[in-house]
Amino acid sequence: MTLLLLKLILAHLIGDFFLQPKKWVKDKEKKKLASLWLYAHILIHVVLMFLIVWDASYWKLILSIGLIHFVIDALKLLLQTKKNKRWLFFIDQLLHVITIFGLATFFYRDSYEFVFTFDPKQLILIICILFLTMPTSIIMGIVFSKWNLKKIAKDNESLKDAGKYIGILERLLVFAFIALDHWEAVGFLITAKSVFRFGDISNSKERQLTEYILIGTLLSFGIAILVGLLYLSLINYV
Questions:
Q1: Which residues have CB under 8 Å from 35's CB, separation 6+?
Q2: d(CA 210, CA 223)
Q3: Which residues does 179 contact at the CB level (< 8 Å), separation at least 6?
Q4: Nearby residues of 97 by Cβ (< 8 Å), 6 or more positions away
Q5: d(CA 137, CA 225)
Q6: DSSP states of 163-227
Q7: How far are the Cα atoms of 34, 54, 143, 147 from residue 215, in angstroms, in the given order?
Q8: Backbone angle region of 202, left / alpha / beta, with phi > 0 → left and psi within -120 to 50 → alpha
Q9: How far is 153 from 63, CA to CA, in rounded Å?
Q10: Sign of the CA dihedral 190, 193, 197, 198?
Q11: Chain segment 120-166, per-residue pLDDT in tens
């Protein structure tokens, strides 16, 4: 049962965050239920679940998850406005996770047997690493969509997507240090980044940019630390 849930969550992460380009999201927000990419997105999710679970006998579960995924996404598109966009994103993701756990428990609570080369600990590791890359970047983008970054940093240009990749690398490093029980390295990394960022903050006369940098750094490190602690807890449980 645990392995089934992990595989379904892995399929969700890949389908929602790695195989859904921004142009699909924009098209869905514009055309709502008339967008072809909405249906392509659901199809990709269903195919991913079949490929990752790799057992056609669970077609009822997979198709049920796909159907409810469509309903949740459709309702989100119909209800979404500029004001509630951020909150609907998190509600949407929470409902998808609840759907996976609820339906898996309903259909196959006692009957699921699974044979695969990965054990649960390896799957948990893969899920944590994937979550700390693009999914977390997207989550942080949703959080920071409240502010106009281009306006805040109009005189502080940087390389395209540099901040995103720096964030991904720092989160992966923090996660690795926690998983290896080297908390002192996490402290060193925070100190090192603070030193590099000090020039950005001290040279900027705008308080908004300073606050943006601090919030982004703390949020990125905070998420990585929480995921690291969750990983350590889960591998001791399975």
A1: 24, 27, 28
A2: 20
A3: 125, 228, 231, 232
A4: 9, 12
A5: 15
A6: HHHHHHHHHHHHHHHHHTT-HHHHHHHHHHHHHHHHHHHHH---HHHHHHHHHHHHHHHHHHHHH
A7: 38, 42, 10, 12
A8: alpha
A9: 45
A10: positive
A11: 888 999 999 999 999 999 999 888 887 766 665 665 556 566 778 88
Residues 104-120 pLDDT 10s: 989 876 654 544 456 78
Token output for 64: 């049920």
Phi and psi torsions of 179, nearest 5°: -60, -30
CA torsion 198→200→205→207, rounded to 10°?
-70
What whole-number distance in Å separates Cα of residue 87 and Cα of residue 64? 25
From CA 210, how far away is CA 200, in angstroms rounded?
A: 8
Cα 199–200–204 angle (5° rounding)? 110
Domain ranges of the chain: 2-116, 149-237
